[in-house]
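Researcher: Let's continue the batch. This sequence belongs to Xylose transport system permease protein XylH, and it's 416 residues. Same format as the previous ones, please.
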Amino acid sequence: MTSTKEPVAPDRLSSQSSSAVALHTGTSDPRTLIMRNLRQSGIYVAFVVIVALFAILTDGVSLSPGNITNIVLQYSYILVLAIGMVIVIIGGHIDLSVGSVVALTGAVSAVVVIQQGHPWWLGILAALAVGIAVGAWHGFWVAYAGIPAFIVTLAGMLLFRGLTLRVLGNISLSPFPAEYQQVAAGFLNGLIGGDGYDAFTLLIGAVAAAGYAVSGFRTRVARVRYDQPVESFPLFVARVLLVGAVIMYFAWQLAHARGLPIVLIVLAVLVLVYALLTRRTVFGRQVYAIGGNLSAAMLSGVKVRKVNFWMFVNMGFLAAVAGVIYSSRSNGAQPAAGNMFELDAIAAAFIGGAAVTGGVGTVVGAMVGGLIMAVMSNGMQLMGVDQSIQSVVKGLVLLLAVAFDVYNKRRAGATR
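Model: Same format as before. Here are the structure tokens for Xylose transport system permease protein XylH:
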């Protein structure tokens, strides 16, 4: 899936410095300004609209404290997979094996903990080790043998599903000890009190909202300093306030349910770490460079093979994390676990703004894309929509998201 188009930096939306100056000074053509702002903030607007739509269609049930908690618990492993998948896609590849890796790592953990009676934490370590080994296996064939990732991971999907069946002996294993179940079903509450709500959850929500605002402001200042295009200041403020309000509402609902889910803390740490990794490190910028323009990256001295190898090692690690979370939530390991998870992760990345040709995408965007899929699935389930219709709707949303990306690229190319 690698391409030879112009490289795109993680925070860069256009290479036209004159357009950048016009954009943040407010002298750009109104239609162009609207389209650029839509590309930058459209995913957040779409998320809010979808949340509001299902809140109306379900008479507010979708926004109830209990249901919001269930969304976090039910779709956390897909969001973890989306983090790794968007990095792989930015690098110009794809990974079709993650669902099978989720099943295999969960199976290994179950055998270690349930069947062999070892401590729960040893099962987690074993699962992570297997995930890293699987990632190294894929990375070797892609980076050093030169086989396309599509073929390697398609083979991996079959290979590791078969190994899952062998490890489990075609049977399910359960239950896990209570400590293991806490990974996906545990909550932190009552740490600092609260009258009818968990004040600690609200505090974490306020910190998250403030962190988002500060990070957004710093990114905007940096872009303006280097004459890169930014959204208009009123839209920037509106976006920050909107996202902050969503975060605080989300925290308020969790605080009135069971408190802060442990799995949400794990997910938040992963999002922060990988957002910094992709934006602020040499490795992250090299991933964007490889996906944006492979030839230019090689000529610039990027060690393409090494970067590709570690991309898949990272994907294997995150698939193992998702495997631990999923097996913890289901309180066991099943041969069919993780079925079609790879498609949900890929959909989250593309809906969140990743480009099919590589070089474009963000971790935060993938999270929003995953949440859109989660809210849609949950909302349609609450409405009693038939499973076949749910698949049709989700397929159309994915198609429209990619079509919107292609449309924007064609318009951008026509205006240069």
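Researcher: Any comment?
Model: The first strand starts at residue 187 and ends at 188.
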